[in-house]
Amino acid sequence: MPFRLLNSRMVEAQVVPGQRLFSQRGAMLAYRGEVSFTPSITGGQGGVMGMIGRRVANEATPLMAVEGSGTVMFGHGGHHVHVVELSGDTLYVEADRLLAFDGTLQQGTMFMGSQGGVMGIVRGQVTGQGLFTTTLKGHGAVAVMAHGGVIELPITPHRPVVVDPQAYVAHRGDVRNKLSAALGWREVVGRGSGEAFRLELSGNGTVYVQASEEKL
Amino acid sequence: MNGPVIHDATTLPVDDNVNPYAFSVELKGSKWFLQKGKMIAYYGRIDFHGIGHGPLDRLIAGSFHSPLHAADWVVAEGQGKMLLADRSFDVNSYDLEDGNLTVRSGNLLAFEPSLSLKQSIVPGFLTLIGTGKFVAASNGPVVFVEPPIRVDPQALVGWADCPSPCHHYDHQYLRGVMGGVRRLTGLGGASGEEHQFEFVGAGTVLLQSTEQLMAEAPTGEGPPDEAGVPGGGGGHGNQPMPRLPGQLGDLQRRFGL
């Protein structure tokens, strides 16, 4: 089910019977046809265990299930919207950046500390992601929110990409991430460059970066 | 990458957008109504009169029918070009041809006196009637949609030619066994989309791209305190909504659901 961008901050989605869609609660702007918006108690898929997992991981963003037949327009908080089409691969994104996504996508949570050990945990703190992040896997589309426009940067095995952790939005594919810190005496005395933390992504995939250092 | 465009009095557009956030109006001895504080710069010789000044009485009598907003509007008069903007919100101009358009009062920036401004009977909205140009702001670009459509109340900027804005309540998910549990316990919370504005019939509905409202302009006193006047009596246009059967009010919030 494709999302159609109406402008930089709004998407339109087709809802057909039998296919559900998840979206952030309160993000519907308008709709046509007979569409129902049901708050999802479990916050997505995976039943009660999925819910507990997300609660523990603090990735339980309030979601609602959108069903029926018609077209729905989504937008939230004036943030820019970027549509990511998944074809079998996995998107790693913070749950509160999800505006809407296909119900057929498999939702999961991932422990970020498993990549990079202690630095993985520091990384979570610096990017504001915490220790866990949400994964979406399968075939379908995801509408992701960002502060400012989104830039896609490809990651190839010999070309790792370094991003500012605050500008990081999401990534997809087979990507390892490593937080590097260049902390020295300058940072200690408050004369740092402001770019002490860098997020280095290597492997094969794409990273999405927003044109702002402001978190959602 | 292109650098900043430098404008002067001759290159500024005539009654058009300079960029998505600023609008340039040319005055040639003509007059424009504008909301106080929305002019950011001007070239030429332009006077700004508060409404209620003697020499403008006839103009105001002809095109300003909104006594409760009088304190928020000024008349610009003279020769030159002025720039209008509002807190970096997106600004757009709209042309009406013998038409009518109702817009949220805080969103309207300026209008030509060939239009007449009236208070809508929907509290908090203003209606423009006639032929001419007006400028309105929105949080994010405006999207035009055609009815039948249901709209998030906060995303609504205005509507043209639709006679039927009404409320639509959706509590479908509060029915059945699970709905009963949900209603009694508050578990699962609300979707935040139980209430929409519904538009049917012919016309156009204007939506902004987010559900974050622009701060409303102060509206002074309410409409006259008469029987049958919505929002009449007391100035606070919106009375508290009656609590609906499914709403638990503060209980849900207390549980953080």
Automatic annotation (TrEMBL), chain A:
Classification via Pfam families: AIM24
In terms of domain of life, where is this protein from? Bacteria
User: Which InterPro entries does the entry mention?
Assistant: AIM24, AIM24_sf, Trp_RNA-bd_attenuator-like_dom
Q: What PANTHER family has UniProt attached to this entry?
A: ALTERED INHERITANCE OF MITOCHONDRIA PROTEIN 24, MITOCHONDRIAL
**Protein name as annotated:** AIM24 family protein
What does UniProt list as this organism's lineage?
Answer: Bacteria, Bacillati, Actinomycetota, Actinomycetes, Kitasatosporales
UniProtKB/TrEMBL annotation, chain B:
Q: Where is this region: Disordered?
A: 216-257
Q: Which InterPro entries match?
A: AIM24, AIM24_sf, Trp_RNA-bd_attenuator-like_dom
Query: What is the superkingdom listed in this entry's lineage?
Result: Bacteria
Q: What is this protein called?
A: Ser or Arg-related nuclear matrix protein
Species of provenance: Streptomyces mashuensis
